[in-house]
Amino acid sequence: MEACFLCPRKCGADRSIQHGLCGAEALPLVAKIMLHQWEEPFISGTRGSGTVFFSGCNLGCVFCQNHTIRDGGIGDVYDADALAAAYLALQQQGAHNINLVTAAPYVTDVVQSLRLAKAQGLTIPIVYNSSGYECAEAIRSLEGLVDIYLPDWKYVSPLLSKKFSNAADYAEVASAAISEMHRQVGDLVLDEDGLATRGLVIRHLILPGCADDSRKVLDEIVNRLPAATHVSLMSQYTPQVYTTEFPLNRRITQREYDRVISYALSVGLHNILIQERDSAQSLYTPQFTKPIKI
Ligand code: SF4
Questions:
Q1: Test site for ligand 1: of 2, 16, 19, 58, most ligand atoms within 8 A of the Cβ
Q2: For residue range 64-120, what is the model confidence (pLDDT) as tens digits?
Q3: Which domains does the chain possess?
Q4: Mutate to test the pocket of ligand 1, among 1, 10, 141 (most ligand atoms within 8 A of CB)
Q5: 125-161: b or e for each residue (b if 16 or more CB lie within 10 Å)?
Q6: Residue 287: per-residue pLDDT
Q7: Does residue 58's CB lie within 6 angstroms of at least one atom of ligand 1?
Q8: Model pLDDT, residue 68
Q9: 224 FRET partner, CA 20 to 30 A, in 163, 188, 216, 217?
Q10: What is the model's pTM?
Q11: How far is the CA of 259 from the centre of ligand 1 (A)?
Q12: Is the minimum distance from the CB of 208 to ligand 1 under 6 angstroms?
């Protein structure tokens, strides 16, 4: 393997001999494969979303709810053949879709695996579930292979993105990547059962004390994308034992959440997905202590 410049970190690691900044080694490491019931209803449906959690992350937020796998090192090695077989097994189990979580460090292998699986009969939609911190060029390599993009748009403020994700350039990078995603798949399309078949859904996790930046994220969305863009406003932020620093040491308030929802509607976004605030529980965060191989 040569120096890796796959993601905006462009750290140049030779992953055949060392970890990248994302924690990834040469081949994909998969922490968990499961039928996920707690994604948005149009993703999880009744039978679950066939979710592949990749180990390692090129963004590495301090508040990550999947922190046990964020730094890599947990899971089993899956080459492109093994990934393709896993997708097909999930389809066989009834998954509504294949949901690739934090695949950015492995996008080359993912492209190969999707081509293999589709040639072997994979027909369910492919969901690319991303932090938003992706090179637009990498997203272009997924064109025709991914049906649904599910990126985060976390921040506009470079101060916040630097402080919480060590990525002062997050907003400009995510904006370019998400525009490319929308160019490929357009707005969200649901089938007669209310399940997603194609399109873009942006997730925004509201952080405590950061509602001003949430409003700026919504401004960016309406400035760059159609008002019909689906935006999932997530209230589930839960302080972890390692997030003791201000302002991340509490859940968001109902007032903070309601004000962000009202603002989204006021700027013309009309496909807003909201959560019950009791979703702010670790119950909905998969545990990664026992990797499952299928
Ligand atoms: S994907 Fe990982 S190894 Fe490659 S540039 Fe990004 S951080 Fe570095």
A1: 58
A2: 888 778 877 789 999 999 999 999 999 999 999 999 999 999 999 999 999 999 999
A3: 29-284 (3.20.20.70)
A4: 10
A5: bbbbbbbbbbbbebbeebeebbbbbbbbbbbbbeebb
A6: 46
A7: yes
A8: 79
A9: 163
A10: 0.93
A11: 37
A12: no
**Closest Cα to atom 1 of ligand 1:** 105
pLDDT < 50 stretches in the chain: 280-294
3-state secondary structure the chain: CCECCCCCCCCCCECCCCCCCCCCCCCCEEEEEEEECCCCHHHHCCCCEEEEEECCCCCCCCCCCCHHHHCCCCCEECCHHHHHHHHHHHHHCCCCCEEEECCHHHHHHHHHHHHHHHHCCCCCCEEEEECCCCCHHHHHCCCCCCCEEEEECCCCCHHHHHHHHCCCCHHHHHHHHHHHHHHHHCECEECCCCCEEEEEEEEEECCCCCHHHHHHHHHHHHHHCCCCCEEEEECCCCCCCCCCCCCCCCCCCHHHHHHHHHHHHHCCCCEEECCCHHHCCHHHCCCCCCCCCC
